[in-house]
Structures are given as structure tokens and as C-alpha cells.
Amino acid sequence: MATVKKTIYIALLANLLIAVTKFIAGNISNSAAMIAEGVHSVVDTINQLLLLLGISLSKKKPDKYHPLGYGKELYFWSFVVSILIFGLGGGLSVYQGITHILHPAVLGDAKWSYIVLAASVVFEGTSLVVAAIEFNKLREGQSWWDAIVNSKDPSTFLVLFEDSAAVAGLSIAALFLYLSHRLNKPYLDGIASLLIGIILILVSLILARESRSLLMGEGVKTNTKHRIRQIIESDKAVLNLMHLMSTYQSPKEILVMLIIAFKPNLTTEGINDAIDRIRTEIKKEFPNIRFVIIQPDVFEDNVDPNVQTYI
């Protein structure tokens, strides 16, 4: 988590340094693309602050109202970030773009816009490189996309997506700013703003999808479920694992609920001892599984083990 915070702080500093200068340069040059980039930087700055808030709140200790803790705060605030990128970042950029296409502004001095864009590429590019290096450490041999989809910590890839969108947006802004002055076609600047908005909307939809899945209770991987089953059914007191349900409370906190059929000749004490053994073994092999709830049940011979419930 310290590594994640480092990435967020670097991104926050980069966006803070260039947000104001983008607005100033955009006003001087009458550039919709630069204004869109300014909005983008402001939104990214807010997003980083919200991510830090989510990380902080997710570490709160369990209480009587939240006995499983506050881990899902991170998922909630990550979802809020995706909405902000969609509404403030993408929506305003698209609006600015359409407005400047329909009503092109008189082109101003582009010199300051080029200076700000160059500085922004340096800051955003540095932040992107740092985010990519840190995320690469977490991939564990997976492809980049698989690592993002399988990640249970949205803060690790949110900054990566934001910085990638920022660098792409800066490239578009620079290209179309040059073309609008070179060809004396002010509406091209509006097209740049529109394209930047579309990129932000696409990024927000991807982030919303991942955050929503985690917020709604995404469970552990199939291979983890199979290993848990092996641990349980290798216990001498177990007849069969009937149901296994799991959900991520936070990136480092998993809740697992098990319904287990124990051998009928066991006493209550024997069942309790078996539950303790199983819980200990599961937590030993999977440190992120913090909560293991086990319910004994009666095994039914007519239940097909191949269609048992896994959530």
C-alpha cells in the first residue's frame, strides 16, 4: 500500500503543477483543447485526493455497525472517481469540443500553449512511467490487461489509466493545436477537445466496470476455490464441501463462507475441533482470507457435486 500511495502522490503533484498553467495558456490562446486539458488535470487532482481518502477510510477498524470493517470504502471511492472522470472530465471536454466546433473562437497566441503542453508531457510522462513500473511489479507474469482485470485493488491501476489518458490527451491537444494554426482552421481545436472527452469517457467506463464488480462482491479465483476445497475435503472429519461463497472486503481482506457436511458420527466437540482446523489451514495458506464462516450441514446423496453453488 505504501507503493500505491507513492504513485498517487506523484500523480497528484504532477496534476497540481500543471492544472493552473493549462487554464492560463488556454485562455491566452483561446484553445478549447487546452481548456479541456485543464479540466482533465483538475479532475485527476480531485481523483487522487479521493483515492487517498478511500485508502485511509478503508483502514478503519471494525465497529458494531460495520463488524467486517470498512474495506469496501476503497471500492466505493474508486467508483466515484470513475463517475467524476465521466462527468467532469469527459462530459465537459465533449461539451467544450462541440461548442468550439459550432462556434470556433478566434485563434490566439499558441506559444504559451506549446510551452505548457511540453511541460505537461514531462510531468504526466514521469508520473505514467512511475505508475507503470509499480504496476509491473504486481503483474506476476500476467499480461497487462489480465493483471488489471484480476486486480482487486483499483488504486493500483486507476493512476495508470489516468496518466495514460493524460498523455494521449496531451498528444492530441498538441497535434490539433498545431494544425488549427497551421491551416487556420479554428474548429480543429474543438475536434481535439471532443476526442479528449471521448478518451476520458472510455477510460471512465472501464474503471467503473472494474470498481463496480468489486463493490458488488467479486469473489476469489477458481483455482483458489479448488484449493480451498482440497484443504477442506482432506480433513478427516469432512464428508463433503457443499457450498463455497466468497467476497473481497478490501484488496487484502477476503470473506469466505462455507457449508460443510461433516461425518455423521462426530460429536459437537469433534465438529468444533474440525472447524478450527479448517479455518486455521485456510488462513495459513491464504493470508488475505481474514474471515472464515463455517456452517455444518447434512449431506444429501442426491446433490450433484458438479453443480454445487460457488459465488
UniProtKB/TrEMBL annotation:
What Pfam families does the record tag this protein with? Cation_efflux, ZT_dimer
The protein's matches in SUPFAM superfamilies, at most eight in alphabetical order, are given as: Cation efflux protein cytoplasmic domain-like, Cation efflux protein transmembrane domain-like
For whether the record's keyword set contains Transmembrane, the answer is: yes
Which topology term describes how it sits in the membrane? Multi-pass membrane protein
Q: For this UniProt record, give its keywords in alphabetical order, as a comma-separated list.
A: Membrane, Transmembrane, Transmembrane helix, Transport
Q: Does the keyword Transport apply?
A: yes
Annotated Cation efflux protein cytoplasmic domain ranges read 224-297
Location in the cell reads:
Membrane
Q: Where is the Cation efflux protein transmembrane domain?
A: 9-216
Listed transmembrane segments: 7-25, 31-53, 74-92, 112-135, 156-179, 191-208
- InterPro entries in the record, alphabetically? Cation_efflux, Cation_efflux_CTD, Cation_efflux_CTD_sf, Cation_efflux_TM, Cation_efflux_TMD_sf, SLC30A9
Alphabetized NCBIfam families for the sequence: CDF
Q: What is this protein called?
A: Cation diffusion facilitator family transporter
Name its species. Answer: Mucilaginibacter panaciglaebae
